[in-house]
Amino acid sequence: MNFVPKGSYEPPRFDFSIPVRVNLSSDTQTKPSPAMKDAMMSAEVGDEQAGSDPTVWALCDRTAALLGKEAAVFLPSGTMCNQVALATHCRPGDEVLAHEDAHILSSEAGGPMAIAGVTIRGLSGARGMFDVATVEAAIRPKSRYAPSQTLLEVEQTANRGGGTCWPVGRLDAVTAAAHAHGLATHMDGARVMNAAVALGVPAAELAAGCDTVWLDFTKGLSAPLGAVLAGSKQFIGEAWRWKQRLGGSMRQGGICAAACLYALDHNIDRLAEDHANAKALARGMAQIQGITVEQPETNLVFFDTEGTGMTAAAFAGKLRQHGVMVSVSDKYRARACLHLDVSAAQVDEALGVMKLAAAH
Ligand SMILES: *Cc1c(COP(=O)(O)O)cnc(C)c1O
Predict the structure, then answer these.
(1) Mean pLDDT of 45-73
(2) Are residues 153 and 292 in the same domain?
């Protein structure tokens, strides 16, 4: 078997000659603040993979409590949290149910198929969510012929769904349906804290119906590296085998865990500012001829450029010329993302540039 993926996809070299004025391309663009760097500099560290880094333990314990789970493990990225979780929950040949726009399907380089060896059945539903009837319809009668269905995955917030929040009742209903059919449940909680702040519901309550959940520290929480996967003590013990196998065990990880702890203390409540800025941006964009905006629920603002006669890529290219960055999702769909390094004044600045770009 040849395990080398075909195609070479080096990231394009960034054009540093055009200064960036407003970076709305992603909440991953947040940079560690001076105070966060101070916390990193003074972190007490050890050897993470040997279990002797006290700062990593502190982060895992706090995140497990925040997410309402028994135990947690620190990993370098959210993608690795998903890969480790899927590989731990499933066996090769199993089938996973997830929304058809899920990050595990669109953006993890086929990892679930290559690493866990699972297939993913994409469920449909508006705004990145589905309902119990859709789950029930996807459940296969148990037979020698069908793949074993072992896991249901949900995204909170649903990224490509529009940064939408699963309401607690709807989430609990689909996870209960999965459990009733013997499936485990996993939450891709890259932005679960955005959902918790927007809904005013503790993250532990949002994740209550999920056996495992992870939280990304490199999105709106602004840390430079790291994500934490939480679940039962038994599950996290098994997950450690995959962490080791994939090279996700670290050494003086406390330097990064200290940034994540800083984020837990300082960068959660303020996500409400990003949500307010997202609403202000959407309100302004709705006034721009040719742009159709999806109403934001959290910090992501998706919009359609077709009415301007430009593709999303062409529109984004024009904005970039004027120092404003957004990301391209589809031919005519683009995303502007609000975060700690974008102020209300910069939202106005971006709106001015967008108005000019849309008018050609
Ligand atoms: C960003 C993201 C991931 C991956 O996280 P990384 O830390 O970038 O690997 C997974 N799921 C969703 C929904 C995301 O937005």
Answers:
(1) 98
(2) no
